[in-house]
Specification:
This protein has 440 residues and is of the alpha/beta class. Helices cover 29% and strands 29% of the residues. It folds into two domains: 8-24 and 239-438, Enolpyruvate transferase domain (UDP-n-acetylglucosamine1-carboxyvinyl-transferase, Chain, Alpha-beta prism), CATH 3.65.10; 27-234, UDP-n-acetylglucosamine1-carboxyvinyl-transferase, Chain (Alpha-beta prism), CATH 3.65.10. The strands form six sheets. The chain has a four-stranded mixed sheet. A four-stranded mixed sheet has the order 4-5-3-14, covered by helices on one side. It has a four-stranded mixed sheet with strand order 6-7-9-8.
């Protein structure tokens, strides 16, 4: 892990946000491309792979199982090259696989591990060791997997690879990680594997599997995969991460003056609810240059603000919208207090089992900044028209909390101190450098 618990960033109030930036490659898509090209046949080249520590964890897990990779420069851009070993080419790991801080790595990779002809163990850091795994263990066991966990719930997982059988599985929790885990196991299972989602979640796994040649069908909230077809290497491009861009979109919307362009951001409809929410709340955001790459939409965003004019309205996030905005809620919690009507978040119990208990860590840090918030078991409410006071912030080792409260610090007078700010490197190592480029 590239996390330094003693790291501190000092951030002062800012009047304006100007510039043209790019954000790192999408974390969700990078994980999937790394895993799937590792079990594809041949050499794949991946442009704009996420620079975050989480996606390095996935690469290092694959490396331990014999998948070599390297980086090359092409036309001034860095490409990741992965030497795929085919569905049955992974080697038994001789050590416990280290997923670091990454829930996506442990949950999705477990689907592949469950079907191998060898035993394996996979764990991670302190935060990951507290995150629930029964949500993947239940469907994998129903497919015939042998999988054990600490107290039947927590990493490290001990997996004894087995021949698997396809299942028809209705997800009890809307989770793209769990859906992906079952689909990846389905690549190896006898017969057909069907996953039914209560709410449609991000479909990056489905798109990537199709791109690499898997036998997959999806319609509405139902996805079906059949084993038997090998995956084929591809050259792939990862779009910029909208969940990372979200921090700067909010920074621009909160500034007195702003004109910010964010290039080549992934706008897949199952991920782009943030834009609809912000535009619906009155934000001025334009999509420039929309194009389709590897089955996905990529666009350049332009956001403008004049807080001397109107504030964004705020709003209610609940039901399916909560699932669609789950990674953006920390930074929307920063926009809420300066909005006209405030922000209400419901149906968000999942936030309690992210990299930190995000309902608690959002509320604690808002309170430190003198912002009123009411906490519920599965959400929170922040009234609008409030002001941030500069404060000492604790990220609790959670990348999205570190970045969200760095944006809050821009709206306060005086200097805020973000403790354990290096947590940002889990998804966005360049965050503070980019932030300093665009604020005035
Ligand atoms: C992710 C799915 C979401 C999200 C996480 C990444 C993915 O988690 O919060 O950051 O890449 O599939 P859940 O599947 O637990 O909802």
């Amino acid at each position: 892990m590239n996390q330094d618990v003693s790291s501190v960033e000092r951030i002062s109030g800012a009047k304006a946000v100007y510039g043209a930036i790019a954000v790192p490659g999408d974390k969700s898509i990078s994980h999937r491309y790394a895993m799937l090209t590792s079990i594809a046949e041949g050499q794949s080249r991946i442009l704009n792979y996420s620079t975050g520590a989480d996606c390095r964890s996935t690469l290092s897990c694959m490396e331990v199982m014999g998948v070599s990779h390297g980086f090359a420069e092409r036309d001034g851009r860095t490409e990741l090259i992965i030497h795929g070993r085919g569905l049955r080419g992974l080697e038994p790991p001789l050590v416990c696989l280290n997923a670091g801080n990454s829930g996506s790595t442990i949950r999705m990779l477990s689907g592949i591990l469950a079907a191998q002809k060898f035993p394996s163990e996979i764990g991670g850091d302190e935060s990951l060791s507290k995150r629930p795994m029964s949500r993947i263990m239940a469907p994998l066991r129903a497919m015939g997997a042998h999988i054990g966990a600490t107290n039947e719930e927590f990493p490290p997982l001990a997996i004894n690879g087995q021949p698997l059988e396809g299942i028809d599985y209705a997800l009890p929790v809307a989770s793209a990680q769990v859906k992906s885990c079952v689909l990846l196991a389905g690549l190896y299972a006898y017969g057909e594997t069907v996953v039914r989602e209560p709410i449609r979640t991000r479909d990056h796994t489905e798109i990537a599997l199709r791109e690499l040649g898997a036998d997959l069908e999806s319609s509405g909230n139902v996805v079906k995969v059949r084993a038997g077809k090998p995956l084929k290497a591809r050259n792939l491009i990862v779009p910029g991460d909208l969940s990372s861009a979200a921090f700067f979109l909010v920074a621009a919307l909160m500034a007195k003056e702003a004109d910010l362009v964010i290039a080549n951001v992934g706008l897949n409809p199952t991920r782009a609810a943030l834009l609809d929410f912000l535009v619906g709340a009155g934000a001025q955001i334009k999509i420039l240059n929309l194009e389709q790459v590897n089955g996905k939409l990529i666009g350049t965003l332009q956001v403008r603000s004049s807080q001397s004019g109107t504030r964004v309205r705020g709003g209610v996030i609940e039901g399916a919208l909560t699932a669609a905005l789950i990674d953006e809620i920390p930074v929307l919690a920063i926009l809420g207090p300066v909005s006209e009507q405030g922000l209400v978040v419901r149906d968000a119990g999942e936030l309690r089992v992210k990299e930190s208990d995000r309902i608690a860590t959002i509320a604690e840090n808002l309170n430190r900044m003198d912002v009123r918030v009411t906490v519920h078991a599965d959400g929170f409410e922040v009234p609008g028209k409030q002001k941030f006071r500069a404060a000492e912030i604790d990220s609790h080792g959670d990348h999205r909390i570190a970045m969200a409260f760095s944006i809050a610090a821009l709206a306060a007078e005086g200097e805020s101190v973000i403790h354990n700010a290096a947590a940002a490197s889990v998804s966005y190592p360049e965050f503070y450098a980019t932030l300093r480029e665009i604020i005035q």
